[in-house]
Amino acid sequence: MKYPLNLITLALITASGSMMSSSAQAADFSVNKANTSSVNMDKFECKRCPDNTGYRGSVEPGTVYNDSGDIHSANALNSEEGAHGVLNADLQYRGKTGYQAQVQATNLGLSNSSAHLEAGKTGSYQAEFDYRQLSQYKHDSAKSNLWYTDGMLTPSSDVQTQELSLKRQQIGMGLTAGQLWGKQDYQVFARYSQEEKTGYQASSLVSPRPTNFGLPVDATTDKLSSGLSISGQNWQTSLNYQYSEYDNQIDSLNLPYLADVYAPAPDNSAYQLSLAGQYLFNRTAISAQLATGRMMQDEAVIQTSGNPIQNWDGQVDTTDGKLAITSVLDNRLRLGGSVSYSKRDNKSSTWEFAQLESDGISGAFKQNTLLDTEKLNYKVNVSYRINSDYRLQAGYDREELERSHSDRDQTDESTVWTKLDIRSFANSNLKLKASFSQRDGSEYQASELTSDIDNPQLRKFYLADRDRTAFEAKFNHAPAGWINISFSGLYAEDDYSDTTLGLTSSEDYSYNLNVDMQFDKRLSGYGFAGQQWFESRQNGSQSFSASDWSVNVDDEFINLGAGLNYTGLMQDKLSLGLDYLFANSSSDRQVVYTTTQPQGDYYSYNHSVEMYANYLLSDLMAVRLGYRYERYYDTDNAQVDVNAIDGLTTLGKLNHNYNAHQVMLSFSYQLR
């Protein structure tokens, strides 16, 4: 599509606040001063440019064989155990009349794969088609004495085994068309997509004892979007419509002796209509957006004693708006600000229901409560370039959020931050950021919905007063032409100083180190290391009064990796590669109640090694042989055998401990 140069300038100023250099400004070479009205682009021809019409790209068919005793390995190896065909491709076609097409395929034939096809004519139209498959495997030997068949959960005297996994198949298609009429560029688009989600996931019910089972999943989500955009010399506007519909194929679940023991996720739909625009006035960009929508749910309700309705007439209306301004005052100073508004207005039906208590029905009647939210955000920022080596930025953000029928009607959070970009070091770049935020609000009191079951001293972490301090640093250095080093670090602390019961403090700190090396024209390598720690403390009350116990949670994550690639063997026909990855995560919980009582850890680690060889049969053909090994182990102390606890049926211990192997052979052909 064709875009006026002023519109490109508008996007640059809005997104990054780029500023012209002083020499460009003095000579008046700014992009928004360019005049192309007298240039006939249709007759432009580069006589020395290479001919790029025709077909380009590569096609790589292959086969994969996986050997593993645990289906969980398919998450890393992209396919289940056994042999599978696979196809990778990246093809382009460009015609002399402006027609062009592209086909991309990634791991087609495996459990996680994608494909993309697009075709059209430059400046006129473009059609697209997408396919994607996503699979997530939990365990292939979950235990249960409830088995799902045709809407019925059938109890079994023998414990049965089933697979817990979710598979999603997504398809999408779209069409975009545009035309330049006069000084305006018009574009219209329409896109449709569908996702089918199937499988089983862990769930539970009480009938009459707590029982875990594999909940069937069979749902479809349809999405439709369309829009119109018009752009001129220094402005752009668009009108968009989005619609989505969720259809759950699983009805309420039944036991042979009891109906409607489990309610499925209800069918629902939603739509949104939005209007957006941008305008460039000299070196000031103004953008605005207004959207309105509705979420609806009118699925049948499971009938119980005291239920007065057949269908739930659920409706939530949404309103969103945003106004942002960015102004480049001169070559050093840029100012920006925005205000946004969001409202969720619950207009669902209200009815009087018999109130349920833990020991039965109380007999009292009360209306269901409609929960609304309203949020207002303000942001202002300034950026000042001190000189070519230093740039300083600062800003202030504020969020005001109101909730109806909540423990706290209103919360306000203010954040101040500053950034410093330093380029004075040779072949280096240092970025520093510091921020401080404070959240408070209206008087805290238990709501009517929870006043009988919540301790009045309890503070929910997302509503409680909180002070947050954070520091971040990023450093990039190239000490020599063959090596580049980058480092980043983060520290954040949350202090809930006014909380007696609940989350009282937390810390999050991490670092990441990356090294890229090009030893010579044939040998290259890389290495990385990263760690992250979460530490939190929470107070509780066993006696429903003052704090009498606490829990400390420590989480740690480690990622290490390295790799080498060597080319030029066997008269530049053979290249070899090696990649290694190690990942480790652990969680430790300590409960203090008169004495320290460890609650057991969660621990997992993963070793992954990949080796490959690529051999050129000719300038256009190559063969690739790869081998991958994965060692995976995890253990969770919270998991117990099926009937290890009286009165509770679990899915068993769903830990993993396996070695997995993958061999892949592929052939690639280049089109030139």
Automatic annotation (TrEMBL):
Stored InterPro entries: Decahaem-assoc_OM_MtrB/PioB
Leader sequence segment: 1-26
Superkingdom of this protein's organism: Bacteria
The entry's keywords: Signal
SUPFAM superfamilies for the chain: Porins (SSF56935)
Name of protein: Outer membrane protein
Organism (species): Shewanella sediminis (strain HAW-EB3)
Organismal lineage: Bacteria, Pseudomonadati, Pseudomonadota, Gammaproteobacteria, Alteromonadales
